[in-house]
Specification:
single chain, alpha/beta, two-stranded parallel ribbon, about 30% helix
Length: about 190
């Protein structure tokens, strides 16, 4: 697919390319070229569906890795367009004019990672009503600390278990039940 597509993308700086079979490929482009490439892919190359926008928090590199997953109308080609943006204050341009379903994906990026989306009409509360803490999908968000500080009613409850300990006990009991002889014989 990339052999046919790349000549049509002249003028774009392709930072990386990966072909995974004949149907699936990935391109990585600078953020500055992202929106114009998405326009070209939608209007000129037949990528009519935005399946999702995925985000990975690469805290060590101080970037978010974003992947826009696009499909053609015939579902015969899937293209992932990837870019990196800075974790602190770097924004994205909305792609709602191209794909209306981007509204939900972008709201999630904003709320869960704190990414500003320029031109988005409704970045208010989405799933986290009244949230004032670090966005919960950022890697520096400490879930255990958050729960301990905000949900003291969990303390002392019977169902407040250490997950690792509960799994260890379950594995031990399964292992013990397999070791016991069957058939009514006793030693």
């Amino acid at each position: 697919m990339l052999d046919a597509l790349l000549p049509r993308l002249q003028g774009f700086e392709i930072l990386a390319q990966t072909q995974r079979g004949e149907r699936l490929a990935f391109l990585r482009v600078p953020k500055a070229q992202l929106f114009s490439l998405l326009v070209l892919l939608k209007q000129g190359q037949g990528f009519v569906t935005l399946t999702t926008i995925a985000c990975a928090d690469w805290i060590e590199d101080e970037v978010f890795g974003l992947t826009y997953l696009l499909e053609t109308a015939g579902r015969d080609r899937v293209l992932g367009v990837q870019t990196h943006i800075g974790r602190e204050g770097d924004d994205l341009e909305t792609c709602i004019p191209l794909w209306p379903q981007a509204e939900i994906f972008e709201r999630e990026l904003h709320e869960m990672f704190g990414i500003p989306i320029v031109g988005h009409p409704s970045l208010g509360d989405f799933m986290l009503e009244g949230w004032t803490h670090t966005p919960p999908m950022r890697r520096e968000f400490d879930t255990l600390k958050f729960v301990q500080e905000n949900y003291p009613m969990r303390e002392g409850r019977e169902d407040n278990q250490d997950v690792r300990e509960a799994i260890r006990k379950l594995k031990e009991s399964k292992k013990a039940s397999k070791v016991q002889p069957s058939g009514g014989e006793s030693s």
